[in-house]
Amino acid sequence: MRQSQLLMPTLRESPSEAEAASHQWMLRAGLIRQLAAGIYTYLPLGRRVLRKLEQIVREEMDLAGAQEVLMPAMQPAELWKESGRYEVYGPELMRLRDRHDREFTLGPTHEEVITSLVRGEVSSYRQLPLTLYQIQTKFRDEKRPRYGLLRGREFLMKDAYSFDADWEGLHRSYTSMYEAYHRIFTRCGLYFRSVEADAGSIGGEGGTHEFMALADIGEDTIAVCDSCSYAANLEKAEYGGKEQAASEESSVRDEHEAELVRHHTPNIKTIEQLSQAFELEAAAFIKTLIYAVDGKPVAVVVRGDHEVNEIKVKNKLSAAHVELADQTTAERVTGAPTGFAGPIGLQIPILVDDAVLAMESGIAGANEADYHLGNVKPLIHLSQAAAGDFRNAEAGDHCPRCEEGRLAFHRGIEVGHVFKLGTKYSEALHATYLNASGREQPFIMGCYGIGVSRLLSAVLEQHSDNNGIIWPRAIAPYQVHVVPVSVKDTVQMDLAAHITSRLSEAGVEVLMDDRDERPGVKFKDSDLIGIPLRIVIGKQAAEGIVELKTRKTGEVQQLGLEEALVFATGAEY
Amino acid sequence: MRQSQLLMPTLRESPSEAEAASHQWMLRAGLIRQLAAGIYTYLPLGRRVLRKLEQIVREEMDLAGAQEVLMPAMQPAELWKESGRYEVYGPELMRLRDRHDREFTLGPTHEEVITSLVRGEVSSYRQLPLTLYQIQTKFRDEKRPRYGLLRGREFLMKDAYSFDADWEGLHRSYTSMYEAYHRIFTRCGLYFRSVEADAGSIGGEGGTHEFMALADIGEDTIAVCDSCSYAANLEKAEYGGKEQAASEESSVRDEHEAELVRHHTPNIKTIEQLSQAFELEAAAFIKTLIYAVDGKPVAVVVRGDHEVNEIKVKNKLSAAHVELADQTTAERVTGAPTGFAGPIGLQIPILVDDAVLAMESGIAGANEADYHLGNVKPLIHLSQAAAGDFRNAEAGDHCPRCEEGRLAFHRGIEVGHVFKLGTKYSEALHATYLNASGREQPFIMGCYGIGVSRLLSAVLEQHSDNNGIIWPRAIAPYQVHVVPVSVKDTVQMDLAAHITSRLSEAGVEVLMDDRDERPGVKFKDSDLIGIPLRIVIGKQAAEGIVELKTRKTGEVQQLGLEEALVFATGAEY
């Protein structure tokens, strides 16, 4: 491809709206342009990369035995009502009406459509297992689209759905997808971890893993063991070496020892303020938060230096929604302003974290303005509360899997998700097959997603330097950038054309910068668009000598024509 | 691919909702399933064929120098308001609002988006010419979706847009696309004609061609010369050997000869009834129709055996809308009930077709209930009317291009369209570049569409027999169907596996029917899904002999293994 003809509008400066590095590079290198918030056009370079990602995904899906289909973006609302998601999904679901006033959704996902398809076409266990996938545009009306393709409203996804006769079958299908995902992300040059994750609102039972690209901009926090392969989403992360409840022996012998001490703490509300006032570490305090669990108030009690994990609370109570109670509710149930809540005397259910029970004593809110209580002995005073693990894992916690490891935290971008759905959709939509004994059974399903356009962003978060993009070769828009220094020099241009044609014949994709620009401009653009190998054709062209520069390492070599061609067709860059 | 694992639900019977042959075969061979009216899921076989079509289109677009982009389906309504199409497009434009109540359209086409993109990114004549294309899902809320993929509401299209500095450039871009379209449809095995077409409501000046797949089910009528290459849409078709106006000599010498004759014609309204009553051919009558042209009544006068061509009327009057006037209007301007309109005495503009002026005299409506006028001499009585070509071409008319040819009519399915837009969108959206003298000029644009999913239907309208599909090899889902007669026979199965693997290694795509079904069922399905070459492995497997059947010709050969492999990897089927 001749660069003079390519629509590749590079930008000198970083556009102010681009907060994330990947977003900046995509705009500056002319990969994408925004049409509306969270909605982008892919320009030729961006489209090329996206197609390479699609192709890698497609090859690995086919290799894993999945069959490609293509489902519509427009989905009848009836199907979503049948699954119960039409009301639940909320404002992120794009909705429209056709000319006959029939309701449709623009699919953010296709569980309903695929389940209804398979319900109609598959009737016997002999037709199972079956895994279907598509690569298709999805729609989600994000409240705050941001970071370019990382959180968009129209985006490209690969979604796959498996149908099995039993849970063992699902496990095989799931594992096969899990392994395919590892191959896909590896081929794309991504640094990633697969992490155990919570089921979230999509529902379902059993295992689920998220594939996280490690990047500071990531919206998720993941806990990773520094010794074994354990990795989990923060919301799901467990930890080892659980705090033992304070021993019976250390507990009180007589009532006097259990007497609470009333501390006047005017306007001292936060753990930080308490810590200063009492000259004690945060771990010496007991923190009480009032939650609304499916609308009803529940107190959750954790150590002062810990954070409540709402997912663990939710799972413990088998609840649908857990959120912090509003101020009015919190003040009503505690009888005190925010900052003075405590576990003692509350008339609502209380969950107390194991780490609190391991404290001999601590200081907690008094449920009275400007007062805290000292000498709170959890084993005594909180003996009626439900105990368990209700806190987030913390950096330095023991690994829950291995003996030696400690947990460290990273930020991650979710680029893939594998999920054991079980019978959630097959039951809701009455999608059944006949088993070997002729009995009707709901399909056991799994679903598997990859954000293909998001993956493009994630790769760029990891593969750039101050000068621009550094494409992993497998997804580079072109592998070689041929740059004649002066387009007016016919010797250079002839050699450039010769190299381009020889490489193209060898199946190497070449971009040739035939623009009449200063060398500085050409090299700057070349660094910016990040093609893995640059072949500069300058003054030594007459002697048949060219300069090769590897974008990733910056390594420069002067080579003769034939050697250069060997290098450019090889795997050394 | 093993057929036992493939989701390919074939149907014995033709579903009642399928009127078109292509629609029937697509349902019966398990290529597609309907999700909602005009909205389909592509099953694995259908998806494979669709991808092959996509790939052919992509290769030819790239070869023609077009660059692939990907634009969003969701388009801000503002852009459509800027171009003026938001109101004009009518109910076929899918519309929705996002969570912030902003209006969007689901693009049926992308002129607005591409023009606004190029407006922002291209500023100099040095960046021209530029042709961008995409292969993408489009939405159009058809009033009556039908014929499967032929007239759907969500469909796959390739659309391309060219930007040039001048009309000569546009002509080159247009010609390059025109030629690419010929290559594309030829590669797909389609019988087609490129026909001159009218600009239609999309607007623009200059040339436009439609690519028509010849098929009885086609919604368009095309006129084709039986001698030269002339072909045109009925609405656009011209004809040669235009009727000469009746010569002066044959016209009246004195007033008496021009005297009108009043005929009582009670309840005789149609040309057919008149023809019977007067015992004259339809060509002896003069037909007058009242049209609403941009809301104003206009009379159009054609010979009794001719049909008014509304496009020609529209173009003559440079009008935006031409439609038959409603009955009230027609009765008001003629003063008579429908069936008795005539050109004489009307107080509204009159267009009279050349063929009428060639009549010495004729019989026309009297603008009075139950009366017609005889001895109407167009040259005298209609001398004030505007003359011209206002009728449809007819089978048997002279070709407008060559001397010898006569026009014949065919039905066609529009599968492609190339269109010189000119400055319609660049002016509306103020999309300009600086020319060599630094002056701002609007881009000269062209647009080029191919209905990729519709093409799939069109191919199937032409490529089937009573037993099923006959895929053209270039777009067949698999090239070879390996059918072991008995899956319990290990010799057969081993040979089937061997052949499958040898062919796969040679790059041939193979479907292997490993189902435990009766041979009759297998052969029926094989005919139905129409893979070009079938290799049947039966009793002679032990001697290494197999049977090859070419789907298209029905030709059967018994061949040894190696010969069979040579044939299957060759180009002879």
UniProtKB/TrEMBL annotation, chains A, B:
KW Nucleotide-binding (keyword) present: yes
Domain Aminoacyl-transfer RNA synthetases class-II family profile: residue ranges: 38-472
Reaction(s) catalysed (UniProt annotation): tRNA(Pro) + L-proline + ATP = L-prolyl-tRNA(Pro) + AMP + diphosphate
Source organism superkingdom: Bacteria
Coiled coil: none
SUPFAM superfamilies: Class II aaRS ABD-related, Class II aaRS and biotin synthetases, YbaK/ProRS associated domain
Its EC number(s): 6.1.1.15
Keywords carried by this UniProt record: Aminoacyl-tRNA synthetase, ATP-binding, Cytoplasm, Ligase, Nucleotide-binding, Protein biosynthesis
Classification via PROSITE patterns: AA_TRNA_LIGASE_II
Record's keyword annotation contains Cytoplasm: yes
GO MF annotation terms: aminoacyl-tRNA deacylase activity; ATP binding; catalytic activity, acting on a protein; proline-tRNA ligase activity; transferase activity
Protein's cellular compartments: Cytoplasm
Gene Ontology CC entries for this record: cytosol
GO biological process: prolyl-tRNA aminoacylation
CDD domains attached to this UniProt entry: ProRS-INS, ProRS_anticodon_short, ProRS_core_prok
Entry note about domains: Consists of three domains: the N-terminal catalytic domain, the editing domain and the C-terminal anticodon-binding domain.
Function: Catalyzes the attachment of proline to tRNA(Pro) in a two-step reaction: proline is first activated by ATP to form Pro-AMP and then transferred to the acceptor end of tRNA(Pro). As ProRS can inadvertently accommodate and process non-cognate amino acids such as alanine and cysteine, to avoid such errors it has two additional distinct editing activities against alanine. One activity is designated as 'pretransfer' editing and involves the tRNA(Pro)-independent hydrolysis of activated Ala-AMP.
Family statement drawn from the similarity comment of this UniProt entry: Belongs to the class-II aminoacyl-tRNA synthetase family. ProS type 1 subfamily.
PANTHER family xrefs: MITOCHONDRIAL RIBOSOME PROTEIN L39/PROLYL-TRNA LIGASE FAMILY MEMBER, PROLINE--TRNA LIGASE
Name this protein carries in UniProt: Proline--tRNA ligase
Originating gene: proS
